Every structure is written in C-alpha cells, then in structure tokens.
Amino acid sequence: MENYNFLIEKLKELGLTKREAEVYLTLLIKNGATVKELLESLDVHQPQLYNIIQSLIRKGFIRVSSGRPRVYTASDIGVLIDVQKMKFDVLKNTLQEELAKIKGKPEEEGPYISMVRSLEGVLASIIETINAAEIEIRAELPATVFEELKPYLLSALQRKVNLYLLVYPSTANFEEFERFKDQVKIKTSELGNFLLVISDLSKAVYSKRRFLSIHKLPVSNTEVYGYVIHEKDLLLRLLNIHNNLWIKAKEVLCWVPRPELYPKVFVEFSMALNELETLLRLGYTPIVTVEGWDVKGEFPLKVKGKVRSVNRFGIVSNFLLECEKGTLTIGGFDAEVEDIEAQKVTIEKIERQKEGKE
C-alpha cells in the first residue's frame, strides 16, 4: 500500500504503538480477521499479538465476535476520534475549572519572551493567543496553518474581534469569512516573512517560515519551535516587517467604509492610521476618541475630536486631531515628537466633509 507508512504514523498520533497501528490497519484492510490470519499477514509472535489485540480492544479500536474462531474487526476511525474529542472536551472543562481555583492572580507578569517546542506547541500557543483577543488580531500565516486555525479565527470574529490577516501562498479559501466582511481585512501573497499572530498588541506568537514552507524539505514536527512574545517593542519591530508586505499584498476581502460601520476600535496604530487616511481620501471627517499618554507630561489622558490630516514623513507617522484642547498630534507606541502616544483609537463616527468648511 502506497501510503501505508503515512497511515501508521497518523494512527500513532492517536495513541497507538507501531505494532498496534499495524494490527488495526491490517484488520481494516481485510475487513476482519482471525488470529491465525493476522499471524500469516504480520511479522509478530502469537503471545505478543494477543497482548496487542487486548490493548486495542481496551482502547476501543477493534471489536471481537462471540463465536469460534473469534473474528476481530476494526472500529470506524471517525467515531473513535469523535469519542476522543468528547473525552477531551470534558477533560478540558474540568481542568479549566479546577486550575482556575488554584491559579489565583499572578503577582507579576510572566517572561517577556518564551520558547515553545514542536508544531503542536506552536499551534497551541497561537490558539491561546487568538482566544484571548478582545479587540483585534493581526496575523501572517502559511496557508496550511491558516486551514488549521480557521475555526478559532471564525470564533474570534463571532466575538466581534476585528481580523487583519495575510495568508501565503494564495491558495486558501476564504468563503466562510465573507459573512464577517465588516470585521475583516484579508490579503494574500505568494511568499511570506514568517508565522506571526498578534492579539490586541499585547501578545504575539512567532515562528520561522522555513519550518512550514511547502517549497523546502519537510521538517519533523518535533524540530519546529517558536516564541511567545510579550515585549511590545520587539512585537512592533516584527509588525514593521509585516506592514511592508501588507502594503504590497493582494486584497481579497475588506470592509467598505461607510457611516453605519462605526464605531470601530483600533489598538494597533498603523491600522488606525490606514483607516483614517482612507476616510479622509473618501471625503469623510472622522470623529475619534484617543486613549493614551501625554508625551511630555507622561500622564494618561483621553481626548475626542475631529481628524484633520494624516502625516507620514520618514519613520514618523501621526494624525492631527482638532479638539477642545486645540490641535494635537497623535502618534503610536513610543511616540516622541507628537503630543499624545495613542494606546487605543476609536473611530466613533464619520461625517461628510462640507466644501469650503472642512
């Protein structure tokens, strides 16, 4: 059988040993067999075969007839996986409840950067990051990983989280995301920089593109590693690289700016700036609320006003806000030349500009 070894490896992922997987697959191919028939087909001693059979029966992978000679048949793999999923769902709920009781509140933050090993570890960290998002997710994903994460991204959209997604190469299907078109911006590129998922600009998961490339020799799942990043400065440096590709990438799905779309909240400043620039170009005046820090006085503040312009020069990008305090310049993280360092920008509503007044 051409894909025999592949099937053996996949059955091992379900918790079977190599020998157990061989017996299960043989029974499946033969549509049932006796011990004698199994001994003729497999290179295994009879006492060992009996032990394997008993183990497979206990795990639910095979059934045995009541007559003589006994005939062993393979259980349906789909049903077995469904049963495992139910068991894991119960286990997940139980552990979450019990661990929450003993976890308590951490007295200090965890490490700024931590390493995770194996593809499963990277995927688990990404899912945890997606599930924690409350406002927005930014992601750059290989198409194969995107397919794995689809259910979790869709669940985030159901929670009203905004999604900014770049997938490479452009082979993925995005039909399920069209019903959330007022919350998503999706682009594709033939090549990506890395795997990157960022939640609310507070937590990111990063891994090398090399580990997941379809154009290079496959890497063992155990050799894959990635990083969970809480360090905001490093996170934003990665975002700068991502943004350079985002600008050039092909747009697949994007909301259409219009009055009924707002209010809309932005944590990541570059996306807020892009949205404001688009609105101004379309002839709208955005009314926004900015939450952040006074750059010179270093105290928190919150201001509301009308956006008059978006400015980009060199490495500095900001927008001009007309409010009760006067005209203020609003910058992003680590702003130095602006009046305010924005941590959250909410476009409350938009108004049509009046000729000669706006």
Spell out the blueprint of helices and strands:
Elements: H1 4-13, H2 18-30, H3 35-41, H4 46-59, E1 62-64, E2 72-74, H5 77-103, E3 113-117, H6 119-132, E4 136-142, H7 143-158, E5 162-168, E6 184-188, E7 194-199, E8 203-208, E9 225-229, H8 232-248, E10 250-254, E11 264-266, H9 269-281, E12 284-294, E13 300-313, E14 316-323, E15 326-331, E16 340-352
Parallel strand pairs: 4-5, 5-6, 15-16
Antiparallel strand pairs: 1-2, 3-9, 4-7, 6-10, 7-8, 8-9, 11-16, 12-13, 12-16, 13-14, 14-15
Helix pairs in contact: 1-2, 2-4, 6-7
Structural notes for this entry:
By secondary structure, the protein is of the alpha+beta class. The chain has 3 domains: 4-77, Orthogonal Bundle (Arc Repressor Mutant, subunit A); 113-254, Endonuclease, Chain A; 259-352, Roll (SH3 type barrels). The chain has helices spanning 4-13, 18-30, 35-41, 46-59, 77-103, 119-132, 143-158, 232-248, 269-281, and strands at 62-64, 72-74, 113-117, 136-142, 162-168, 184-188, 194-199, 203-208, 225-229, 250-254, 264-266, 284-294, 300-313, 316-323, 326-331, 340-352. The strands form 3 sheets. The chain has an 8-stranded mixed β-sheet with strand order 3-9-8-7-4-5-6-10, sandwiched between helices. A 5-stranded mixed β-barrel has the order 12-13-14-15-16. A two-stranded antiparallel sheet has the order 1-2. Helix 1 (4-13) crosses helix 2 (18-30) and helix 2 (18-30) packs across helix 4 (46-59). The longest helix has 27 residues, at 77-103. The radius of gyration is 27 Å and the shape is elongated. The mean pLDDT is 89. InterPro entries: TrmB-like, Tscrpt_reg_TrmB_C, Tscrpt_reg_TrmB_N, WH-like_DNA-bd_sf, WH_DNA-bd_sf. GO terms for molecular function: DNA binding.
